[in-house]
Amino acid sequence: MRIFGRDESLRLLTGTRNGLVMVRADPGLGVSALLAATVAAARAEGLPVRRIPVLPTGRTTLSTGLPDWPEPAVVVVDDLHRADDATLLALHELADRELRIITGRHRGHTPARFAALDRIALVHDLEPLSRDAVRAIAGDSPLAEGAGGNPFLLSIVDSPDRAALISSWASELAGPDVTLLRCAALLTEPSTVDELGAVSARTAAEVLAGLDRLAALGLVREHGGQVWLRYPLVRADLATTSVGMRGQVARALVRRGSAPEAVAAQLAGLPVTAWTVSWLLRHADRLAAQPAPAAVELLTQAVAWLPPGAAKLHPLRAALAEALLWSGQLDQAHRVAAAGLATRVALPLRQRLRTTLARVGLARLDPEAVLAALGPERRDGPLAAIEAFGCLLAGDLAGAVTAAGHAEATAADHPVVAVALLNLNAIGKLLTRDLAGALDLLDQAEAHLDIEVLDPAQWLLGRLLRGTVEDLRQDPDSLKTLETARPLATTLGAGYLAWQRTAWALAAFNRGHWDEALTEVEQALATPGDAYGMARPLHGLAAILGMHRGNLPAAREHVRLAEQAECRGVAAFYEHNVLTARAMLADLDGDSAQALELVRTLADGGAGVHHGHSVTGVGARVVRIAVNAGDRGLATRLVATMHRWTSDDSVGQRGALLYCQGLVDGDVDLLLAAAKEFAEHGSPIAAARAGEDAARVLAASGEPEAARAAYQEAITHYTGLAATGDIDRATAALRAHGVRRGATGPRRRPKHGWDALTEAEYRVAELLAEGRSNREVADRLVVSVRTVHSHVSRVLAKLGYATRVEVALGFQRRH
């Protein structure tokens, strides 16, 4: 008889010759099947077998005394937790005979009754099945995970009657506590003892006693007053078969003052009533700002239920449009808001609907749609703040300032407007490189959002702005900050996600996480169309990466695609990166005239939305191009612009200015100081460039040993980044000055073995050797779990290993 995942347990039971074996497990874990397989194995050995059933009353054939059985023999008792005390006493005495006594019982059922037997028995606890056993039973069923390795649940996971079967199974086990179990299944997890008491009409003491019984059956977990059902599949199916209780539960939650989201979860899917609409009117705004699927469904039902022209219809339709917007359903949000505007609604609701339409345009990074949605009322009240953002998207800084001025008049009465103005002003500070001032404004905005304002878009904007400012300051928290924005950006989708991916990729590139940056770029560009206008800067970054790594054909293709893409919306704030990529490629191709023409365009203010922002953002790269091409005047002009706009509190900007001044003056001390500062603050590519340029100056000055030292340091940084293109170019440039890499210097990385690992991959291997999970590695390295998964796959491939354990063992052998 085949028992999936229980081979070891079966060998234990069949290998025991005499004495008592106690198999303990939660219901559904397969005790009965295991005992049946044991009986079959014993009969195959030719041993006498006695199966002792336990009657509903608890009595067995052992209740009236000890039987006279032949010895040796096998005695099997299932459901021992139901047996009477006389049976337990008899088993205690039978344990001294030449008998193999195998019993099965529920693990947590009145354990004190079995303490004496457990002391003399070989106790074997059954645990949930392994992944391989789960796959053998349920195949690739998407529901298998929710069964928690329970063989019974897995056996019916794809049954058309699964919900009824599971509900019946759980209800029979729960007995008098079935109502409590169903209430726990209906409530949002984790539910609380107080909530369960309110919805089941029980006292706290009664709830706790019931939970103890349900926990003993393995159906629930309770800790610190919080309650979870053990199996997600049981929870889902109990909720499905308990729909009739939802109205009662909803009203109980309302009486208790529970969160509106919890009440909405119960009301969604039920027939709409006048009571539902009245309750929904009081809580629609909150549900719209933080919309769970149930809230969207409930608002949709209510809007469809109300007759056209009903007074209650208009505010609920406005709330529905917002809920659809904040759940990423942009087309539906636009349709509902437009339908609301087609009716006669009061001014506040009309402004609210226009705001939703404009925010759909913002989500798509489409300034024309934003400004068109605001209509003739754009200067009225809170609409002016939205207009300011629309002007920013269009690159109209003057228009943004004017609109923000109109919005200020209403900021005192509209907290959302106040937050929007703080974020707008933070953008202004960022553009003028007052990074400390930008962070102060973002702190104020976050305080409002934490206390009194529910606005997902402003929260997300604040995260993106903070991460960008931190990146400019070379703050190591920049990636972590931008990563916190990912869940909401993913939910809202469209341009928000494309923008978040672009900001994250740039920060990852600056921090030296090039593989992750390239993965992010590829995923963002996989968006249909032009990645909501972000294709241009994304292709620009991919081109720069290609040049650093020596893949010029790929770099040329990305530059070509960047030039074809339209510069619109947020992408305009990254235009200096695109121009720099084009200039770098022209420089590498030996077209100094074209490279200088592009750099002059930047110096003359022809790229981006703000001259100072653009020049300081890429100054280190374009000054280098100008110096190498022999145009010291152009380089000096760029450095002067950087001096004007550089923030004293920014390590990154100070380092870039130091480096650029060193380039213009040919000052090796400044270049080496810049290289040291870049390296110390986590900008390896900038450190490598500064070191390489210092080596050139030293070599030209007749100091070959000092040049070689600076050169080797630069190559070390380049090697860690797998920047093979930079290594080749630096080697050729220094060789022209008679400086060569020593025999012990860095070598081109092999394709296989430990030396093939990049710096990032080696760090992942080191953390795996410490026994860390992918999530723990991601938290330590401040990257996504997806990125860690990619690293682990590459580590395994390069090392020729199949498992993480082999990586750990291999790492330990090396150290």
TrEMBL record:
Residues 750-815 form the HTH luxR-type domain. InterPro entries: Sig_transdc_resp-reg_C-effctor (IPR016032), Tscrpt_reg_LuxR_C (IPR000792), WH-like_DNA-bd_sf (IPR036388). GO terms for biological process: regulation of DNA-templated transcription. PROSITE patterns: HTH_LUXR_1, HTH_LUXR_2. Pfam families: GerE (PF00196). Keywords: DNA-binding, Transcription, Transcription regulation. SMART domains: HTH_LUXR. One of its GO terms (molecular function) is DNA binding. This is DNA-binding CsgD family transcriptional regulator/tetratricopeptide (TPR) repeat protein.
